[in-house]
Amino acid sequence: MIEGPGLVNLNSIVDRTFIFTESKSLEFRAEFFNFTRTAHFNAPNMTVNQPGAGTLTSAQPTRIIQFGLRVRF
Fold this sequence. Notes:
Blueprint: E1 12-19, E2 25-33, E3 64-72
Antiparallel strand pairs: 1-2, 2-3
C-alpha cells in the first residue's frame, strides 16, 4: 500500500464593516485559503512495476485569495 503525503491547511478571513447611516453600510472581506502557502501534493504514482513508483509529480494550487464587497442600503 502506498500512502500519500499529509495535509496541513490554515485559512484566514479579514472582515471590516463601515457604517455610514443607520440603513447604509459597506462590508469588505478578504479570504485567504492556505494562508501559510504550504505545498499540497497530489497522490503519488501508484504503478508499482514502473521505475517512478511512489514519486510525487503534481501539486494543488498554493494560495488562493478571494475579495468581496457588499453594499447594504
